[in-house]
Amino acid sequence: MSVVCVDSCGWLLDSCSLIDECLQCCVSYSDGLEKPKYIKCCFKREYFNTLKPHGQIQQNTNILTSGVPLDSAKHSEHAKTDLQTRKKRKRKQPDLNTGELDAHIYHEKIRSVVLEGSRALLEAGRQCGYLTEALTAPPSESVQSHECCLAALCDMAKQLPLMDESVEAPVQTLNRDGLDPSLDLFSYITENPFDCAYEVTLMKERYLLPPRSRFLLSDITRMHPLVNSGDKFDLIVLDPPWENKSVKRSNRYSSLPSSQLKQLPVPALAAPECLVVTWVTNRVKHLRFIKEELYPYWEVEVLAEWLWVKVTRSGEFVFPLDSPHKKPYEVLVLGRYRRATDHADRSSAAEELPEQRLLMSVPSVLHSHKPSLSDVLKPYISPKPKCLELFARSLQRDWTSWGNEVIKFQHSSYFTRERAEEPSKTSETPLTQ
């Protein structure tokens, strides 16, 4: 389980635990071995070793400190200095543009929710030992991420002829010896049907595929294998590459104009009462687009807005809560697919979705590496659901994933590995379907 603790405000998540859980026994045919070897893989902890906030948080305004009171004289002097500094900044601050003003108004509306909800979750996290005041681990050296060429390969794949759309089951599966190197990763859904993870070679690189995971590597113009599979999903999670200035400056990945999101075949993929969840950056323009334009276009009824609150290993916000530049939270918009022609029994659609909740976790230092929502959303979807992630960069057990970098964070370089015991013959093994 990725849930460390839960209360009426939300959940504290351990983003690594769910990744590791399904990789405790992994079949590998590396090094030209004829027989498989079994390995245990864990996502490298240095990618989640954020020890200090990225910005300075004033001690007298930080509710996430250990609770030790400040000396009254020092506190008074510190507060006076802080007030003078803020007055100077206020005089120098230019008028806010429309977008900045909207962001300020939205922040003021949810600020108390973040503060109050965070207190209880952080206290629970400290009591169970997950968050610690006294950090003993040394700061990690700058971590290196694998250079990903998947998006470029998807662009090249556009030159290939389109797959025959009459193919009824555009799915290719692992066999006992892993993947056939001649398989087409861009035109077919690739599936690991076994109850064990597999380490396989794809395009001369090694990747870890979780049990019963499926993926399609393509861009938005080549999604027809997903639609043609005939699957209808009970949960669809989207993490769109939103346009913003930071992305343009860094050139980390290609962004997608909001208008093009309407091309996504969400209605064709959604089962009645499907829960649709979209990650949103802290631009009110994008939030408004989802609620007022995108979801209505897909016939998705907006039901809730949740917040992902990012904290350090010691329980501080990763950015000052009131920073004018970056906030320590992101928004999720949740809704249900409800066509006017559908007459589903809504009373049977699992638990009622709460309007506001916090998801709190130590974020990955890898860009756009979001925490899994599978454990959190279980009560709000049907039993044994079919789940889909769009714009995914990693895979999950029992999920289908799509994107032009869909296996990016499954690359073997992100994991530690050690030998594991071969499963007993009496237990279910990956070599029998």
Automatic annotation (TrEMBL):
Disordered: region residues: 72-95
Signal peptide: none
Gene Ontology MF, one: methyltransferase activity
Biased composition, class Basic and acidic residues, residue ranges: 72-85
Pfam families reported in the protein's UniProt record: MT-A70
Keywords, alphabetical: Methyltransferase, Transferase
InterPro entries referenced in this protein's UniProt entry, alphabetically: DNA_methylase_N6_adenine_CS, MT-A70-like
GO biological processes: methylation
Family recorded in the similarity comment: Belongs to the MT-A70-like family.
Name of protein: N(6)-adenine-specific methyltransferase METTL4
Organism expressing this protein natively: Labeo rohita (Indian major carp)
